[in-house]
Amino acid sequence: MLHLPIVVIFSSLVLALAHHPRKTNYNEETARTLLQMSAAAYGDLQQVCLNRIHSSPYTVLTPLEGRCDGLFDTCAGYIAASDVDRQLIIVFRGSKTDWQIVFQGLEYFVPIEFYGMGKINSYFADGVDVLWPRIQQVLRNPMYSNYTVTFTGHSLGGALAAVAAARTVAEGLRPGHQLTVYTFGEPRVGNVDFAASFDELIQNSYRVVFGNDIVPHMPPCKKTWIFTGACVPSPIWHHGTEIWYPESMSVGSNYVECVGEPRGEDATCSNKHNLIFYFRHFIEFIFHNHFVYDHRHYFDIEVPAFGKAGCTIG
Fold first, then answer.
1. What CATH number did the domain enclosing 79 receive?
2. What is the mean pLDDT of the chain?
3. Which of 57, 143, 43 is nearest to 91 (CA)?
4. Beta bridge pairs of residue 63
5. Where is the signal peptide (predicted)?
6. For the chain, what is the domain count?
């Protein structure tokens, strides 16, 4: 009799999984780890963070940093490797200043053609370009030729991660099936052609979005109505699969694998909010000089602060 509750609970879990089968290969444990690695890019204690985050040894191979706009803002990150897991993880830092975010938005109006895949925001292309020599050097190193490669980043870092992954395939440095992309609060990167090309080349790509985070909705897509409705094919469109946590990101929280229509801009996920809703949050960001809470906080950590503190809370 003492074992009956356990049997009942287990049976309930099996039944729940049967009614809510997984739709993608998204792994929350992997996402939590990569979010912490993305946070580490905001500080100067990447190796300290890696030692705390991973059970198997990961080593920082090289830092990444370069000037990526006319205001002397930098794009940055680092590359880590594990000989045990036989994996490279290429991590990109998010925006460092508010003006850097403004520059990203302005560059939306200057899209550029990207390896015949479609058009992307030129700021993101330039950001990857200044970091590319070191990334390319590591990817071409025979020592890592059979390592899987994961690209990750938060905010701007997510956009750079996506562009770098696409460039890796476009330049023949790795086939798409060897790549994984996890991003957090990533803005829209390119047009609908780029999104389609990206999704064809790299299937294992997940854009994690928390609650009402405004950044994944910037720049805004064109709607079926002026302020509401689903996104329609336009000069700006999301790639990959959105993973939406509508309420909480604590352990055990519900999330949605957004594989509905339109592809990349599932109207039943975070896109269900209208433009007036997000415009209000954008005004809050501009005039109160801070990120919207949901953009700063993923998986219950304040992302930049967590990384700057060496991946400790408190």
1. 3.40.50.1820
2. 86
3. 43
4. 78
5. 1-18
6. 1
Structure tokens at 215: 């950044």
**CB 37 within 8 Å of CB 52:** no
Tell the residue number behind the tokens 């005039």, with chain if given. Answer: 287
Any domain includes 15: no
The tokens describing 69, both together, are 């706009």
Would residue 11 count as lying in a domain? no
Q: Would you name the residues annotated as active-site residues?
A: 155, 213, 295
Helix (H, G, I), strand (E, B) or coil at 280: helix
Tell me what pLDDT residue 9 has. 39
Q: What is the pLDDT of residues 236-276, one digit of tens each?
A: 999 999 999 999 999 999 999 999 999 999 999 998 865 55
Angle at CA 311, nearest 5°, toward 247 and 28? Answer: 40
pLDDT in tens, 166-177: 999 999 999 999
Strands (E), 123-282: 148-154, 179-184, 205-210, 241-245, 256-258
What average pLDDT does this structure show over 163-189?
98
Integer CA distances (angstroms), 164 to 10, 131, 160, 301, in order: 42, 9, 6, 26
**Mean pLDDT value across residues 105-114:** 75
For 153, phi then psi, to 5°, come to 175, 160
Residues 263, 268, 270, 274, CA torsion sign? positive
- Report the alpha-carbon distance of residue 314 to residue 309 in Å, rounded: 9
Per the listing, tokens 């015949």 go with: 116
Q: What residues does 210 pair with on adjacent strands?
A: 245
Written as six digits, the tokens of 171 are 């330049």
Structural domain range at position 141: 26-308
